[in-house]
Write a structure and sequence with these properties.
By secondary structure, this protein is of the alpha/beta class. The chain folds into 2 domains: 209 residues, Alanine racemase (TIM Barrel, Alpha-Beta Barrel), CATH 3.20.20; 124 residues, Lyase, Ornithine Decarboxylase, Chain A, domain 1, CATH 2.40.37.10. It is built from 12 helices and 18 strands. It has an 8-stranded parallel beta sheet with strand order 8-7-6-5-4-3-2-9. Helix 7 links the parallel strand 6 and strand 7. The longest helix is centred in the N-terminal third of the chain and has 14 residues. The chain is elongated and about 75 Å long. The two termini are 22 Å apart.
Length: 359
């Protein structure tokens, strides 16, 4: 591997974070969310490592679920969190022993009218304020009633999704809980409400199934909290210096001449760019870590390379490792410099980045 652009992924840290999520909800099952290739970390690798402790896995679509089953993960339940996208997927879901979320009248119709030889478990989704998928109001109760009467259904779980659980000052989560409870009424089915933010901060929402997602990967929806400090960082993205040059005060660096040297400056070129998943939106000053010290982005990120100000570096040399985020640069800190969130940074790491796994 000549181009040393690497994402080192600590599987033990993922397991530690999953068990931490479970410890916060001792009476709940925890659905380990591994959609979007486990937020860029490698769904099969992550799921296989969690297999001995995970209660459930959650994915976005049938292709992601089949990938897990094809890898040999045959026993742990897998939830299709967006349900099936066409009728033909129902057969595949049954064949692969998947639990299906019912999010819309069309999905409900497909399941109710299907001729199948095996009863299926379903989660039925209520839209309590997210405004995306799910049934509303009377439609939700009618859907539950239809599923109860169907010979195709084994177990029913009721679920919803929070829009603002990461905002502790907002009343929205409390209002969504009340709305959901009113919609559930006297039904005595298992419930699933809590995403990562709710697991960390809204204990009353934990119920029967929680859905830890971003927290598995060492990132918290909250800033500077005790819970965040208890999450172990998982991915460390790094590459190497491929060039070092001196520039005079007033000289510009990179596309658009965004960075102008205020003094004579040592500039390093790092072999990573937005085609690898490092955000093009990274502002001048975004932190990197080299030889035990912090340095900073200097100039607009290019497709294959980025430039950094080495003024703070200790005797930098071509070939030195540069950490972009991970053990020493929290991904959430980088996200702030890029006006984005850790979810996006993780999930945009491309196949050009070589992944290594440690346990």
């Amino acid at each position: 591997m000549a181009r040393k652009c690497t994402a080192a992924i600590n599987l033990s840290a993922i397991k530690q974070n999953y068990l931490y999520a479970k410890s916060l909800s001792a009476n709940s099952y925890a659905i380990a969310v591994v959609k979007a290739n486990a937020y860029g970390h490698g769904a099969v690798k992550v799921a296989k490592y969690l297999e001995d402790c995970a209660d459930f896995f959650g994915v976005a679509c049938i292709e992601e679920a089949i990938e897990l089953r094809a890898s040999g993960l045959s026993k742990t339940p897998v939830l299709l969190m967006e349900g099936i996208f066409e009728l033909s997927e129902l057969t595949l879901a049954i064949k692969n022993n998947l639990t299906i979320t019912v999010c819309s009248p069309l999905q409900l119709e497909w399941i109710l009218n299907a001729t199948i030889n095996k009863k299926i478990d379903v989660f039925i989704k209520y839209d309590s304020g997210m405004g995306r998928l799910g049934f509303q109001d009377a439609q939700f109760k009618e859907a539950i009633s239809s599923l109860e009467k169907s010979n195709n259904i084994n177990k029913i779980t009721l679920m919803t999704h929070f829009s603002s659980a990461d905002n502790l000052e907002s009343k929205t989560t409390s209002e969504q809980v009340i709305d959901f409870e009113n919609a559930v009424g006297s039904h005595n089915y298992s419930l699933s409400l809590a995403n990562s933010a709710a697991i960390l901060a809204w204990e009353s929402t934990h119920k029967d199934y929680t859905r830890p997602g971003i927290m598995l990967y060492g990132s918290s929806p909250f800033k500077d909290t005790l819970q965040q400090k208890k999450l172990a960082p998982v991915m460390t993205l790094s590459s190497s210096l491929i060039s070092i040059k001196n520039f005079k005060a007033g000289q510009s660096i990179g596309y658009g001449e965004r960075f102008i040297c205020k003094k004579d400056t040592l500039i390093g070129v790092v072999a990573i760019g937005y085609a690898d998943g490092y955000p093009r939106s990274a502002a001048d000053g975004a932190p990197v870590f080299i030889n035990g010290l912090r340095c900073s982005v200097a100039g607009r990120v290019s497709m294959d390379m980025m430039t950094i100000d080495l003024s703070n570096a200790l005797n930098p040399q071509v070939g030195d490792r540069v950490e972009l985020f991970g053990e020493n640069i929290p991904v959430d800190e980088l996200a702030e410099w890029c006006n984005t969130i850790s979810y996006e940074i993780f999930s945009k790491i491309t196949n050009r980045v070589y992944k290594t796994y440690v346990q």
